[in-house]
Design a protein that fits this description.
Order of helices and strands: HHEEEEEEEEEEHHEEEH
Strand content: 35-45%
Strand order of the largest sheet: 7-6-5-4-3-2-12-11-10-9-8
Distance between the termini: 43 Å
Structural class: mainly beta
Shape: globular
Number of strands: 13
Largest sheet: 11 strands, antiparallel
Number of domains: 2
Radius of gyration: 18 Å
Length: 234
């Protein structure tokens, strides 16, 4: 689906990846960096009929990885989890703290997680008026077909992006798409707002708003985490 591909300029692709794509086999031989450092938190609020969810992503300028804090969606759980998606190594690392143990589970990314095999020709793509969101000047775009309409606003007035992880290439261009837009957001670009309207099932409609882009000095000490087997004496 085209909307999934293009909006990897911002968060939508990342959000859909985390919650909707499958993973391939677990891997143990890949050596993670000693630490993953982050210098920005990117916070979004997803508004849906069933309730609101806050999402917090961790980004680093120029890095080929990003982090995701699961705290807001795993409230009530005794396990603390933090996910890092490493595009350079091709793995997702889930860092967990449970039963006073620090455990990392590494999962190999599939090539299909980065590809979009569906036909985007059914979509039309339109540039709309810009607007300012949280002090950032954002360009507006609409991707639409018979089933849904997605309006999103992107800014390049930021030092971080998901593109270093996912890349910014598209194989198929929908009607009205200008390749120069992709070039503009190739290095820096974040989605500040996304309005998804399901024309056939309104219950699926939702809105995502950026509610914070702040400096941080957060790090994950990957070397402090062991495998599940080693943590419990296997």
């Amino acid at each position: 689906m085209f909307s999934k591909t293009f909006t990897n300029l911002g968060l939508l692709f990342a959000f859909l990846f985390v919650f909707q794509t499958g993973y391939s086999q677990k891997v143990s031989k890949i050596q993670l960096p000693a630490t993953y450092d982050f210098d920005y938190t990117y916070k979004l609020k997803m508004t849906h009929k069933k309730g609101d969810i806050n999402l917090t992503y961790f980004l680093k300028e120029g890095a080929q990885y990003f982090g995701f804090d699961t705290a807001d969606i795993t409230k009530g759980s005794d396990t603390k989890m933090f996910m890092v998606m490493d595009g350079n190594l091709g793995v997702t690392a889930m860092f967990m703290e449970m039963m006073d143990k620090k455990i990392v589970q590494k999962t190999k990314l599939k090539a299909s997680d980065f590809d979009n095999d569906s036909d985007d020709s059914e979509y039309t793509f339109t540039k709309i008026d810009s607007k300012t969101i949280m002090g950032y000047e954002c360009e507006g775009f609409v991707s639409e077909n018979d089933d849904n309409k997605i309006t999103f606003y992107i800014t390049d007035d930021v030092p971080v992006s998901f593109n270093q992880v996912f890349g910014a290439n598209v194989k198929q261009m929908p009607k009205g798409f200008n390749p120069d837009w992709m070039k503009k957001y190739a290095e820096n670009g974040l989605m500040m707002q996304m309005i998804f309207v399901d024309k056939k099932k309104s219950k699926n409609s939702m809105t995502m708003d950026c509610i914070g882009l702040d400096k941080t000095d957060f790090s994950i000490n990957a070397s402090a985490y062991g495998s599940m087997m080693s943590a419990f004496g296997g």
